[in-house]
Amino acid sequence: MEQKIVILTGAGVSAESGLNTYRDKGGIWEKYDLMELATPEAFAANPTKVHEFYNLRRGIVAEVQPNAAHRALANLQSDYTGEVFLVTQNVDNLHEKAGSDPVYHMHGELAKVRCSLCHTVIDTLDDIDTSTKCGQCGHIGGMRPHVVWFGEMPFYLEKIEEKLQQCDLFISIGTSGTVYPAAGFVRAAKMSGAKTVELNMEPSEGQHLFDQGLYGPATEVVPTFVDKILKGEI
Ligand code: OAD
Question: Dihedral of CA 66/67/73/78: which sign?
Fold first, then answer.
């Protein structure tokens, strides 16, 4: 059967590429204060500090490579005869580096920056600061990371909602299921009659909402599960 599949990924899919997750031991929000770095108010109060945090992360993203989980998902997108809609909470570009296309980055992308004034989005892995000039409108000091901060609206929500309403299979990969609206996607998929599957290191907060759960490192469980889909076993 050709199914319509929606895949939601989170930081766990990139962990084995060397990128820290947010809430695991040693995770990003254990080392850094979310309220001082990932809100519009934090940026307004101390743009230099916020720029430094995202410049550091942008630099790391430029170095890391996709892993077997990203590659398996890219293969699924290219080889599966049904529809595969890939939405990620991740701001890294490892799905793209593995060959996935398209990738819906609902929380934005580290490899892009945006002008707060004219809203032009620019691809770059370079550092930005309070003196960076917008290449489009020429305004100085308005460039910001093209990421969604807490208190801001995630991207592509209408499109995601539409896909969740139509999907037959919803797969959540490497996310703790604590941040909304992404944490609510499993409920929406279930209401549409989709089968729901969680692939994660450990059961997430919403474990009871999944029909099936496969637990272990993403580089192992994701390729195994993708193989089954491609063989028509799921
Ligand atoms: P979290 O750090 O909250 O959760 C990561 C999940 O990945 C946990 O459930 C881990 O058990 C799991 N995990 C860790 N290593 C893994 C591995 N090797 N294989 C499989 N699973 C593994 O990250 P997210 O759920 O992605 O938002 O966080 C959601 C959002 O919160 C992020 O997009 C970010 C953050 O604040 C914004 O910045 C807006």
Answer: positive
**Span from the CA of 57 to the centroid of ligand 1 (angstroms):** 16
Which stretches does DSSP call E strand in 27-89?
A: 83-88
Give 153's contacts (C-beta < 8 A, 6+ positions apart): none
155 alpha carbon to ligand 1 midpoint, in Å?
18
pLDDT in tens, 151-191: 999 999 999 999 999 999 999 999 999 999 999 999 999 99
Q: Cβ atoms within 10 A of the Cβ of 5, count? A: 24
pTM: 0.97
* 2 phi and psi angles, rounded to 5 deg: -85, 110
The finding on whether 179 has its CB within 6 A of some atom of ligand 1 is: yes
Candidates 58, 67, 89: which one to mutate for ligand 1, based on the most atoms within 8 Å of Cβ?
89
- pLDDT over threshold 80, residue 210: yes
Q: Which domains does the chain have, with CATH numbers?
A: 1-18+66-107+154-234 (3.40.50.1220), 20-63+109-147 (3.30.1600.10)
Contact 172/8 with Cβ under 8 angstroms?
A: yes
Cβ(112)–Cβ(121) under 8 Å?
Answer: yes
Q: For residue 112, what are the contacts with CB-CB under 8 A and spacing of at least 6?
A: 121, 122, 123, 124, 146
Q: What is the mean pLDDT of the chain?
A: 96
d(CA 141, CA 164): 39
Burial 10-20 (b: 16+ CB within 10 A, else e): bbbbbbbbebb
